[in-house]
Design brief:
- The structure is a single chain.
- The protein contains 24 helices and seven strands.
- It has 533 residues and is mainly α.
- The strands form two sheets. It has a five-stranded parallel sheet, covered by helices on one side. It has a two-stranded parallel ribbon with strand order 6-7.
- Helix 13 packs across helix 15.
- The protein is elongated, with a radius of gyration of 51 Å.
Amino acid sequence: MIGQEAVRKTLTNSLIQKRVHPVLLFTGPRGTGKTSTARIFAKTLRCQNKKDLIPCEKCEDCQTIQSGSSLDVMEIDGASNNGVDAVRDLRDTVNYLPSAGFYKIYIIDEVHMLSTSAFNALLKTLEEPPDHVVFIMATTAANKIPQTVLSRCQRLDFHLISPRSLKEQLEKICQGENISIEEEALWLIAKQARGSLRAGLSLLDQLINFCGDAITQDQIADVLGLTDPFLVFDILKAIVQGSEKYMLENIHAFAIKGGEPEILFQHLIENLRDLLILKVNPDNSPVLVHASETEIDSLKKLGKTASYEDLHLMFDMLLKAERDLAFCHDKHIALEMLLLRLSQAPRVEFIAPLNVSQVQSSKSEDESETEKSSLTDSTIQKSFSEQSTTSGIIKDKREITSLQKTSSLDYPASEGSVFKTDISEEQNAETFDSSQTSWNKEKAHHKEGHAPQEKKKPQALSFDQQEERSKQKVKDRSEKSKSPDFSEKQKDSLKTSPLSNRGEDEISKPSSVNNETSNIPNKKWFTFIDFIR
């Protein structure tokens, strides 16, 4: 048994403890040794000369079981004997004792092919079988078996065999047959078998018929229609190193050999996966990477030229390119463009994190800059206050803030700048003295305990007051126009004003506001605005 340690240990302990279950179910993928294990177990139960639970392979029982002619070990094909009649014949022979020995064994292969009525007819026999009967059922689809049958079985799951175990077993077979084969060729066969020992043996038999006693890696690629491993590695190297010219040469060589683009992408994905695994954990490469030592060394050297981020990006692009390939009519042209895109892909650069010392130094620099800026602001205010008493510049908060803004932009301070005004020095001094005296009075008033006086806001005028004021303004304007000092130009402008064509009655008349235009101000208000303009 190759690569099925759990199954081997379970069956061995059942034989040692003499606790063999009457109904065994072997389930697992194709070519993992289910039927072969059933025959080996039947030999172990029937062989009288076994040593350490290993059959002798020389007695009559072992030879008849191997040839399939034993009367007490019957193999039944579930696909061809899937009816109720076959199950009835089986039930009639179950009660008979074996011709020799103690156990009578029934091996039912592909048991999931039995019909529902056949399963129902077999239920009673499986539930209470005779003591001398052992049923061994093998299947690749345990989900198709009814639960009533599964509950009466002891289930043993078989798994796919690892490529390394397949390679070692194939190497033993080649040594026993005196066949020389390269290590890389063994790895190719083991990978192509996809976990099935039966598929690996079939490929090895085909290669022996073609190559004879000496098998090389190049011959395997030609016979099995595989892509040349050296060519796959060269394409992968061109992708990682970003060499477009080297990439085109290898794609042309691949097209001349008539390779399939889908198979090439599968090999590229597998090799890129091995490259990532070797870069992450190079010490555990024999277990994680299924390749020869020379291939592992080449992949390790190639992995040093690329970062983890680049390899992950290439892996994602390869998966997407494999999906895109299915939608192309000319797959070789698509292969060229997709691989060129991979070789020209941008490289990811890793940004190292900042050290704590660098962060602290940057913080101290920022604090020093803020202190300098505060010092410059205070000096600007002092210098401005000094200049205001001498040069007559008005001391106003708005001008100080504008000075701070111009200082932050590093504008040169010069005479006649924006801070100078057109007011004379005497007027400046008078306004400054008046503002200073008013401030001193308010400050003294506040010290005596009086609250600072708040400025009274102007009260809003009612509608009648506004109407009265507008009438008075119109009256004053008309009287002013009759005066002899009123110029002709002003009279013309008065004629063009909005109030010139309106009388006092029309102005005083309130505007009617309906419900639809309730949000619009009245006509009087528009008249007043026009008058102001």
